[in-house]
Amino acid sequence: MSKPKIGLACFFLFCGFLVVAHAAPPAKGNSCVQCHSKLPLSSFYGVKSHSWVGSVHEQHGVTCNECHGGNPKAETKELAHTGMLPSANPHSPVYFKNIPATCGKCHGAEFYNFSRSLHYKILESTGKGPTCVTCHGSMVTRVLTPGQLVDVCASCHNQRMAIAPYVPQKAKAVLLLLRESRALLAADRQLYASPKCAGAAQTLNQAEVSLQAAKLNWHKFDLNAITNHLEKFHDVLKNLPPASSCR
Ligand code: HEC
Ligand code: HEC
Ligand code: HEC
Ligand code: HEC
Ligand code: HEC
Same domain for 90 and 123? Predict the structure, then answer.
């Protein structure tokens, strides 16, 4: 069995987790959100709490308790915080080493691949590897663009710290290629949408398998594996008939 097929199987397997996550309840009636939204912005806790507002997680009903624990039905601070631990406590779900598993409850595919990365091994052993929030932020969860990526990677991968300083520029090039490939596939899907081009569908689906494999390898941070999958992707697309033959 070829590697891309295994990759795709994992992708579908873990997709199930995400579908469950989508059914999360809205923030209405959630005491964490209600009380914390009233905390003054002049305080550390206020700033932290408000940064969640407007995030993708807020839009999808992923409330504070999903990551921090506690009881979102209780009205008072003491009762709501029962069982909740500050992030500095090694037993807290938001303790830096526990963050991948906490996010992984819903982002199974990313967690699965991340847990097989060198970064994860280093995070577990010395604590010096990045964790999900190093790149995504904890509450203002963002997806890095190739430009933003350079600075984040370079916070560890630089000449001074001498941790593979070639990484930021290479990662930027690889992420650009990944994004361009995704855009190319979307464009080709439109170009070959005509029923006269039905024969192209198989090629496009085959290309998508390589693209998914590349995407999944991203969280393993194996830049060469990603590049290899993307090369395969572009090779497969060479089998497309000329678009003019579909008109
Ligand atoms: C009635 C108000 C109220 C409710 C309800 C409430 N909080 Fe808080 N929370 C606070 C205040 C005020 C603080 C600031 C620190 C303090 O006073 O203990 C705080 C602090 C925190 C902290 C920082 C703790 C630390 O020690 O670093 C977290 C995390 C937190 N709350 C999460 C939650 C979650 C999750 C829920 C819901 C399950 C929740 N809060 C419900 C008022 C509330
Ligand atoms: C997607 C997961 C996630 C959600 C949702 C989330 N947080 Fe956090 N939060 C974290 C993580 C992880 C940290 C750990 C510190 C860091 O790296 O920023 C954190 C840190 C904090 C802190 C700083 C104190 C500490 O213990 O470090 C406060 C206060 C806080 N969150 C409150 C909230 C409140 C209030 C909400 C809802 C309005 C919320 N969080 C929603 C993941 C989340
Ligand atoms: C309770 C489920 C849940 C947890 C826990 C959770 N997320 Fe999410 N997350 C979602 C959902 C739902 C979405 C929106 C749909 C999607 O993009 O799949 C999302 C979206 C995202 C996105 C995409 C943002 C974008 O702009 O497209 C990132 C990145 C992300 N989460 C990172 C994290 C990180 C980091 C953590 C842990 C600190 C975390 N998530 C914890 C459910 C969760
Ligand atoms: C070293 C940086 C880094 C770390 C650590 C990291 N990510 Fe990412 N993540 C990225 C980048 C960059 C992208 C954008 C890749 C792309 O465009 O396909 C991304 C994309 C994502 C997405 C969006 C996928 C989509 O379909 O658009 C999610 C969700 C996500 N990461 C979750 C996580 C989780 C959960 C963890 C921890 C287990 C994690 N990430 C660790 C850098 C990181
Ligand atoms: C919190 C620090 C930290 C951040 C941020 C970070 N890394 Fe790393 N990374 C490490 C450490 C530590 C190693 C292990 C270096 C070693 O032992 O050879 C490593 C190793 C790697 C390797 C393997 C290098 C090799 O030659 O074997 C790659 C690839 C990599 N990181 C990619 C990235 C990318 C891409 C980003 C940004 C999206 C990133 N890293 C952000 C700490 C970090």
Answer: yes
